[in-house]
Each structure stands twice: as structure tokens, then as C-alpha cells.
Amino acid sequence: MGNKASSKGKKDPTVLSDEDLKTLRANTQYTEDEIRAWHFGFLKDCPTGKLDKKQFLHVYRRFYPEGKADKYCNFVFKAFDTDNNNWIDFTEFLLAVGVSQHGNLEEKLKMAFDIYDQNKDGVINRKDMIKIIEAMYDLANEEDRSGDKSPDRRVDLIMQRLNKEKDDVVIRDEFIQGCLRDELLRKILAPNTAVVSDEQETTPSSPSPTTAENENM
Ligand SMILES: [Ca+2]
Ligand SMILES: [Ca+2]
Fold this sequence. Notes:
binds calcium ion; Recoverin, domain 1; EF-hand domain-containing protein; metal-binding; mainly alpha; 2 strands; two-stranded antiparallel sheet; calcium ion binding
């Protein structure tokens, strides 16, 4: 209906402001033309400029037709929605896509941490980890969750390798440093970073259809 869309101070989510452009130019590797092209595409999919959870899930499912993406998608959605207003605006969207496309390992691990840290207090605990591991199992269609593969045992292993037997709380830096130095941790905690490192080009490992897909934002 004839909504007058100019509530003062609130920015119109369909508009790419100079400030947005500046933020995106500074924090991604995209050129201005590329940003405008992404913006055009974003508005095509989300004419209101607001990507909500339902649409996000819809998009996400396309990447994981086999697995149950819902839970994991919820986690990713929250990580993208940095201002916590329950929708993803274009800037939030492209910053996250930029990290998936061009980010270095550390940046990707930062994003992985944000996915774990759902309440955004800079800390993840056992419960957070168990939830995400279950969601990742769903995503990968992993049926076997017994023995060493049980989420609980996985978290034991993670905590052990992060040297966190005493307290069960992991802060961002511990997470990132731990994953940087420990490939197994990285594989468990941030599987989408596992194939990224350039050094691996020298060892043509057997092509793995599951890990090769690091398109998952
Ligand atoms: Ca938001
Ligand atoms: Ca937290």
C-alpha cells in the first residue's frame, strides 16, 4: 500500500548509500562496479532489501539439497545478521559473501567463530558447540552419531585439543589460534576452510565431493 517510506533516521534498505559503498570497498575486495552488480542482484531476489530467515533458508537449501539445512542455516543467518535485527541487509550480506569468496584462513575462522557464538558475547561453550556439531551432522546427512562420533565426544576432543580441559569456555582468539595450528580442529570446527590453504595445491589429494564444496557461505 502507499507506504511513505521515509521514517526519519531509518535508512531505506533498498538504497546503496555512499557510506555502504565505502564500508564495502574498505572491507571486501570488490570494486565499486562489482558491488553495484551484487546490489542489483540482491534487490532482484529481495526487492525490499531485507533478506529474512525464510528466504535465507530457501537459498541455503539449494546448496544442500541432500542434507537438512535448517538448523545450520539458522546459525549462519544469525552470524550474518551482525546488528541482530532479524534480517540481513545488503551490506551484511556482501561482507559475509566477501569473506567466503576472498577471505584468508583467519578471516574464515573468525566467521566460523561467529557462527558458533550465537549470542554474540565473544565466548563459546560446550552447549554451543554440541548444537552446531549436530547441525553440521544434519547438513552432511551424517547418520552415525555414536561412539567417537557423538557430539559430546567430539566436543571433548575439541576442548582437549584447545587445551580447555579446565574451563569449558572458548574465546575468539583461542578458537582462531587453535584452528590455525591444528588441522584436525579446523576440519571439525570449520570444515569449509579445510580445502582453502594454497599449500595444499602441491598434494593432489583424492577429490572429495563433500569437502570440495566450499561455496557454503
Ligand atoms: Ca541485520
Ligand atoms: Ca556466546
